[in-house]
Specification:
alpha+beta
Length: 183
């Protein structure tokens, strides 16, 4: 009987460990795209009560989909039917924000899907498809116009990884976290 309890305990521990959340390699709280959205949304709703998220850009993002402790930023774009311009809210690794309005007609009227997968899950979807371990994430975009030639009617993540030898490897992942292609 005792052996069964030990075996069951080990099996349960393995299942729990396999389902463990993806944690950032940083000492500060937050840092994912959803974290940045939660910060940016307050600024966007102050700008317009009907602000809608339409694009996310990431610069200096770590290889796990999190902002590093220093540097990097998420740039979130919001549109509003009552505003002629798009609002960009930049969220840095400390949670600080800067805003500015942009002329960006392509982003208007294209809300990102509400149930989009957060950046750590999206980056994790690329891992088994990488040709080599990247040095860093060069840039990333999540939008309907991220890959217009291949996925013009879908909101997708396009992630460009910087690799040794001064080359890029680009991966495309769906809004639901499904890996689609690389080139």
């Amino acid at each position: 009987m005792k052996l069964h309890v030990v075996a069951l305990s080990l099996l349960l521990a393995c299942v729990v460990a396999g389902c463990a959340p993806i944690v950032p390699q940083r000492t500060k709280p937050g840092g994912s795209a959803r974290w940045a959205e939660s910060i940016a949304l307050d600024r966007a709703l102050t700008w317009s009560k009907d602000a809608r998220l339409c694009r996310i850009l990431g610069t200096g993002i770590g290889n796990e989909g999190w902002l590093p402790d220093r540097g990097g930023a998420w740039l979130l774009h919001f549109w509003s039917a009552g505003k002629p311009r798009v609002l960009q809210v930049e969220v840095d690794s400390d949670g600080g924000t800067q805003i500015r309005e942009l002329d960006d007609a392509a982003a208007r009227s294209r809300d990102l899907p509400e149930g989009w997968s957060d950046s750590p899950s999206v980056w994790a979807a690329t891992q088994r498809h990488l040709a080599q371990e990247p040095l860093n994430t060069f840039d990333a975009v999540f939008a309907y116009d991220a890959e217009p030639e291949r996925y013009g009617d879908r909101a997708v993540w396009r992630i460009r990884f910087w690799q040794a030898g001064n080359t890029y490897e680009t991966h495309v992942v769906g809004a639901d976290g499904e890996w689609l292609t690389s080139y």
